[in-house]
Amino acid sequence: MGYENIRVEKRGRVALVTLNRPKALNALNSELIAELNAALALFDSDDKIGCVVLTGSEKAFAAGADIKEMSSLSFVEAYKTDFITSWDQVSRFRKPIVAAVAGYALGGGCELAMMCDFILAAENAKFGQPEITLGVMPGAGGTQRLTRFVGKSKAMEMCLTGRMMDAAEAERSGLVSRVVPLDELLEEAMRVAEKIADFSLPIAMMTKESVNRAYETTLAEGVRFERRVFHSMFATDDQTEGMNAFVEKRAPQFKNS
Ligand code: CAA
């Protein structure tokens, strides 16, 4: 499939998706989101892909929803088309997906990064939910996910003032897993993604599902869920292989089965 707003590249078992609307700082319009969803659907059904990296440019991961596209939207249109809901597909992607963020990740850009499994940030990254300056509020999960990442006080301040957070503050407050120099961001993200993709894919998927449960349920239910999924892993060939390889002092050869 030809894409106009993203670039897609497969490097071994890792798929690299680069948001590519440089004239609009990768603002997220409906075509871009449709292309991203289509690419993710292909990766989902491609057994050779074990992890995805989502990135933007050095200046902007994404500067938010496309303000020019949505400025004339009416309430009824927004409601009838269920505006923004199609973006959620990223958060429902079942394989691991890493956001590599340089430059601006604002509004929907910050929300898109938070839909990924974790965020690696370049030193120049800037995160923010500036929607209030436009007379709206975050609409792609920002009030919920940012609050879970950084806690109520900081999330409330960010959403109510629209101020940006730099990479160091984002790391301190748990929004990003690590900060790396700008010129190492992509290389590091690919290295991490390759490492994940070398493990057993079904085990990585179940691990992701279990960590995500922590956001959706109580501690007791979450631990019960984890225990059941953990037990089920003993039905996989990859558990046998992983543990036998350890005992036999050799590298495991996972078969994704
Ligand atoms: N939508 C549409 N176009 C955008 C855009 C956006 N979110 N962000 C930037 N652009 C466009 C600009 O209009 C400009 O286009 P023109 O050259 O045609 O005028 C181009 O990208 C470059 O932008 P700037 O000249 O503004 O670049 P800058 O370096 O001076 O500023 C910036 C960078 C601070 C990121 C600034 O562009 C900005 O504030 N952008 C808007 C950020 C924002 O408010 N995002 C939230 C959107 S609402 C949302 O996301 C809702 C939701 O929850 C889903």
Automatic annotation (TrEMBL):
Record-stated family: Belongs to the enoyl-CoA hydratase/isomerase family.
Molecular-function GO term, any one: enoyl-CoA hydratase activity
InterPro entries recorded: ClpP/crotonase-like_dom_sf, Enoyl-CoA_hyd/isom_CS, Enoyl-CoA_hydra/iso, Enoyl-CoA_hydra_C
Function: Could possibly oxidize fatty acids using specific components.
Entry keyword annotation includes Iron-sulfur: no
Record GO biological process: fatty acid beta-oxidation
EC number: 4.2.1.17
Enzyme class: lyase
Keywords: Fatty acid metabolism, Lipid metabolism, Lyase
Catalytic reaction list: a (3S)-3-hydroxyacyl-CoA = a (2E)-enoyl-CoA + H2O; a 4-saturated-(3S)-3-hydroxyacyl-CoA = a (3E)-enoyl-CoA + H2O
Gene3D superfamilies for the chain: 2-enoyl-CoA Hydratase, Chain A, domain 1, Lyase 2-enoyl-coa Hydratase, Chain A, domain 2
Protein name (database record): enoyl-CoA hydratase
SUPFAM superfamilies registered for this protein in UniProt: ClpP/crotonase (SSF52096)
